[in-house]
Hints:
By secondary structure, the chain is α+β, with helices and mostly antiparallel strands. Helix content is 54%, strand content 16%.
Amino acid sequence: MKQLIPLGIIFIFLGVIIIMIGAITSRDKDKTDVKFGFGGFIGFIPFGFANDKRFLYFSLGLAFLMFIWVLINLPR
Length: 76
């Protein structure tokens, strides 16, 4: 489990860098249609927020996969 902490930090920094590059290199400066999605678990209850149905499904699916990954890697 301790190995996942540096991996998570790397993913956070990579995400911020990708967002910054996307914002700088955006071709359509007048377009304001921004789509987002967020999902996670509180205990065993899944939740998600999004302004597009595809992003909601993707974020909940990704959260579910991470939940399964954690369950598989729990110490026994």
